[in-house]
Design goal:
By secondary structure, the chain is mainly beta. The chain has 2 helices and 13 strands, in the order αββββββββββββαβ.
Amino acid sequence: MQNIKIASAAGMILAAASAAQAEPLIYGFQAERLEYRDGDNGENVFVWDFDFVVGTDDLKLVWRSEAEIAEGSGDFEGLENQLRLQFPISTFFDGVVGVQASTPDGLPDRYNAVLGFKGLAPGFLEIDADFYLSDHSFFRFEGEYEGLITNRLILTPSIELTVPLEDDLAYDQASGGATMEAGLRLSYDLVDRSFSPYIGINYEKSFGGTAALIRASGKENGVTSIVFGTRLMF
């Protein structure tokens, strides 16, 4: 039944996007992260985080994909795909509705409805705040700031905060036990903003009941990684 509801919601999203095609279409691809992480816990992963957008100024359909692939085994330690509709709600912000599927290897699949907003806050901080609603609901906030050192050299601090609203023991998630991921990346625009290699550092740690579940499962809580990667945009 849940899969039927998700499929129905996705169909409504696609129908709404088709109705908006009377306006000229815009489209684009942006990979915020294509990177290799060398973790201090001895576990290294490949990461991607990209959006593909098609639509108009008034309505956009976004395919968002995020993944972490373990070096050696090739297993997806994390894999999320979303279909999102974005529409203006103010000068600097879009509303978001959509569906999300989390399908990592070795864990049960999870499906959520998505409700939130994204845009540009004062101080040119890019933010994305979303509720993921299902039997295993959670809230996620993402913030990122691009600080120009020169016209091509950019320092980008970022933070992501995920707060489970219900227990999900299979995923080592406890209600209210937040997980924080913070990063600092230094990139250089080789080809305008289309190709920007970077180096940086990433830190991830969980708190509260989530931290207790992670420790009980024998995993390390609090991992620092050196990252190497590139941004792509076209």
